[in-house]
Amino acid sequence: MNLLARSWIVVALLSLLALSPAHAGMTPQEVIWFKDAKAWAEKGEAEGQSNLGICYFKGEGVAKDFVQAAAWFRKAADQGFAPAQTLLGHAYFNGEGVQQDQSQAVSWYRKAAEQGLAEAQYNLGSHYADGEGVAKDIVQAVKWYRKASEQGYVLAQYSLGDCYAEGKGVAKDQIEAYAYWNQGTVEYARKKLAALEKQMTPEQIAAGKKRTKELRRELEDKIYENARQKEFAAKIAEKPDGK
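^ that's the sequence the OP posted. Answer follows.
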């Protein structure tokens, strides 16, 4: 059988598999992703376990099952895999596959945040800001928003803009709020920026635009430095003797 004919048969079989009752409505690629993730996960690989949890959570290549998703996230999280720790935090936050528990959500976000994962840092900051699962502490919220912001996480930059605009956890500063809201493309940040401009003098707006450029350069430097440190740490971790 020539290669072209064999490839056609493979495609046909995958199409039939995707249309079978067990995989109804799923694409052949989703089925492949699920099988690969399952094989990887069953070998104890944390990333594979996390990916398998995502398959169950989204219903990609397998029937949607939040309980299974949370179980696989936990296996990866227990190995210290920061993305899975964040996903498990989300599960506890929303009560998906586990009983809703904001304290547990905070605990898992913190584990990932301390490893430098920006999404977890932002979520931890949000819990401090709202007092969910942890005592309300705006200064701590600002601390974690800033860490995520310095990795380019736009929602954290937006939240820092809020803090500066309202004087929460930091001294009130319209110019700094303007600069943070002017960093990304988050729609509600753009709306707040437009509303703020109506309250500012032309001189203040000019100062805000100047600060926007300065802050962008500062953040770019921080983002580069954080990425470089992570790359260096990963290389060190790859060496068995740590040397």
